[in-house]
Amino acid sequence: MSPTQKVFAIVTSAVTLFYMVELVRRRRLKEEYAWLWILTGAGMLVLSLAYPLLLWLTQAVGAVTPTTTLFIFGLLFLLIISVHYSIVLSRLTGQVRRLTQELAILSAEGQLDPGVRPGSPPAS
Q: What is the pLDDT along the chain (124 residues), one digit of tens a residue?
């Protein structure tokens, strides 16, 4: 790895890690979702700083070049993120369905406040 590539990898990893921590600190990203991003940023930083570790990892997974190893782990990261968001989306879909059914039951039973209609924003 050339010195320019190493500096670029270290800077990119550090900026990614800092940005994720900053998003959590400013409450723009929930801790529930941030752990994977922070872990990835830290892993990128470690592999950027410890090139012999990347070479060892390349041999351990049977890849030909360190670049291939990074692509493999990048694809693995995307797979994990996709599965995680699919689980979250499935859970939220079930919650919306349940809440819609409860609202319809309350509306049919007349237990809702007369000024509130399903689908209308709540009065201030």
A: 778 888 888 888 889 889 988 998 998 888 877 888 888 888 888 888 888 998 999 999 999 988 888 888 888 988 988 998 899 999 999 999 999 999 888 888 887 666 656 566 665 5
With a threshold of 0.70, does the pTM exceed it? no
Q: Distance between CA 117 and CA 38 in Å, rounded? A: 43
Which pairs from 72-77 meet CB under 8 Å and 24+ separation?
73/43, 77/36, 77/40
In contact, 44 and 16? CB cutoff 8 Å: yes
Residue 45's nearest CA partner among 3, 77, 17 is: 17
Quick check: 49 and 10 in contact, CB under 8 A?
yes
Tokens matching residue 79: 């797979």
Q: Let me know how long the chain is.
A: 124
CA distance to 12, 59, 66, 69, per residue, from 63 (Å): 23, 6, 7, 6
